[in-house]
């Protein structure tokens, strides 16, 4: 028979599992998208993130409308949940002293200033911070890095899309080279920075040493050119505009049904047979032009014409439902509202509506260390006093820093 204590333990409710990054403290000096997205993802996994903003605030607060009840742009709220915010003027010696105080308790610092800015302030990683904080992981996000022909220059998502060839393969003959409709370089840079930080944390767990993590929009943009760059390197043929089609696979494209567009992604012969049998194109299976992907690529125009004719009078919902259950990849070309109205979006928890906050849910899930959606996006300088008291500053010192202009007053962000 169990003892009283064992019986009590058996029936006690399970303790809430800690996030994978519980106990990790992050100082976030970044603004706009890549850096804030990175630190938001760290927060979703349990890290404590302190967002440090200059007196003018993160400029993304003003990139509206739409704006929330506090006047912050929806854009800002999309990448800054789960953080505490302080205002701090790092151009002043007192501001830099406060930052150094915060770093005494920090594991990670993330910044995306123009290279050289931190060194100008006496906060260079190698020269000033590494010896003082040997366990610190310092993540610098920039457009091009510190050195090289473009080193030190500012970088922006759309400019990198243009410079690194992404626009050259996006669009069609009518549109010409076109910017991808989301800031994909910034977005992936945020994920790249997160990966680098996690690798550095793992390395530190083995060695006890922090290090600098160098992430650039330039490198990230070039890394997106799969398979276009590999195709060019092997053939020396310059990739061009293909609309929604794929350079290596057919049929892999957008097609019109009676009531809307679908995207069909057939990647092997087995799927092609199932598709043709379902859609009434069985004769194509005996046509030598379409017996393999290589042949289908060579005759993609004729294949497209046949598929368009077969789909023209069919309802897209039925086509997508039936083909997906046959193992043929296909989906409706949804609008943004349609994407978030899907039942599976709710099932996966990918839309968050809480206390007036509306956001996209975390995309990474760990079975034993649950993701959490923490604090709502902070107002400007909302937690300044709280954070500084935790760092050991008393109210007299905080008041003095405020009088010196080191700590900007709380205020609404600039009106759009």
Descriptive key words:
416 residues, 6-stranded parallel β-sheet, 3-stranded antiparallel β-sheet, alpha/beta
Q: Could you characterize what this model shows?
A:
- The chain is built from 18 helices and eleven strands.
- A hairpin with a 2-residue loop joins strand 7 and strand 8.
- The strands form three sheets. The chain has a six-stranded parallel beta sheet with strand order 3-2-1-4-5-6, sandwiched between helices. Strands 7-8-9 form a three-stranded antiparallel beta sheet, with helices on one face. Strands 10-11 form a two-stranded antiparallel ribbon.
- It starts with a helix and ends in a 13-residue tail after the last helix.
- The N terminus is likely disordered.
- By secondary structure, it is of the alpha/beta class.
- The radius of gyration is 26 Å and the shape is elongated.
- The longest helix has 24 residues.
Helicity, in percent? Answer: 25-40%
How would you state the average pLDDT, rounded?
93
Total of helices? 18
Q: Given the C-alpha coordinates, what overall shape results?
A: elongated
Return Rg in Å: 26 Å
Count of distinct strands: 11
- Helix/strand-derived category reads alpha/beta
Strand fraction:
5-15%
Helix/strand order: HEHEHEHEHHEHHEHHEEHHHHEHHEEHH
Largest sheet: 6 strands, parallel
Ranges with pLDDT <50 over ≥5 residues? 1-14
Keywords: Transferase
Region (Disordered): 392-416
GO molecular function, one term: transferase activity
Organism: Achromobacter spanius
């Amino acid at each position: 028979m169990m003892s009283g204590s064992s019986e009590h333990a058996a029936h006690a409710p399970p303790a809430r599992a800690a996030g994978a990054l519980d106990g990790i403290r992050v100082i976030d000096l970044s603004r706009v998208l890549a850096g804030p997205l990175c630190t938001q993802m760290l927060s979703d996994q349990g890290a404590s993130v302190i967002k440090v903003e200059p007196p003018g605030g993160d400029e993304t607060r003003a990139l509206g409308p739409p704006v929330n009840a506090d006047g912050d742009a929806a854009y800002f709220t999309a990448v800054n949940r789960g953080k505490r915010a302080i205002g701090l003027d790092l151009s002043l010696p007192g501001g830099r002293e406060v930052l150094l105080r915060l770093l005494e308790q920090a594991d990670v610092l993330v910044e995306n200033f123009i290279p050289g800015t931190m060194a100008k302030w006496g906060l260079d990683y190698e020269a000033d911070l590494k010896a003082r904080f040997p366990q610190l992981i310092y993540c610098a996000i920039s457009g091009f890095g510190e050195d090289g022909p473009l080193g030190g220059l500012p970088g922006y998502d759309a400019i990198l899309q243009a410079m690194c060839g992404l626009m050259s393969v996006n669009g069609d003959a009518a549109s010409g080279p076109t910017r991808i409709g989301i800031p994909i370089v910034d977005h992936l840079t945020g994920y790249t920075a997160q990966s680098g930080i996690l690798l550095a944390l793992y390395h530190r767990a083995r060695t006890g040493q922090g290090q600098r993590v160098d992430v650039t929009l330039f490198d990230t943009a070039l890394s997106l050119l799969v398979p276009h760059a590999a195709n060019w390197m092997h053939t020396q043929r310059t990739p061009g505009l293909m609309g929604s089609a794929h350079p290596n696979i057919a049929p892999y494209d957008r097609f019109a049904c009676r009531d809307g567009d679908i995207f069909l992604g057939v990647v092997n012969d087995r799927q092609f047979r199932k598709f043709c049998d379902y859609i009434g194109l069985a004769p194509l299976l005996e046509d030598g032009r379409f017996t393999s992907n290589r042949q289908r690529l060579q005759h993609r125009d004729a294949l497209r014409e046949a598929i368009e004719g077969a789909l023209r009078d069919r309802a897209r919902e039925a086509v997508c439902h039936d083909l997906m259950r046959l193992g043929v990849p296909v989906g409706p070309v949804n609008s943004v509202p349609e994407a978030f109205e899907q039942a599976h979006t709710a099932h996966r928890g990918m839309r968050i509506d809480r206390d007036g906050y509306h956001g996209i849910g975390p995309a990474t899930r760990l079975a034993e260390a649950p993701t959490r959606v923490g604090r709502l996006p902070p107002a400007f300088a909302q937690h300044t006093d709280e954070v500084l008291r935790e760092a050991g500053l008393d109210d007299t010192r905080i008041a003095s820093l405020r009088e010196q202009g080191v700590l900007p007053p709380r205020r609404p962000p600039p009106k759009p």
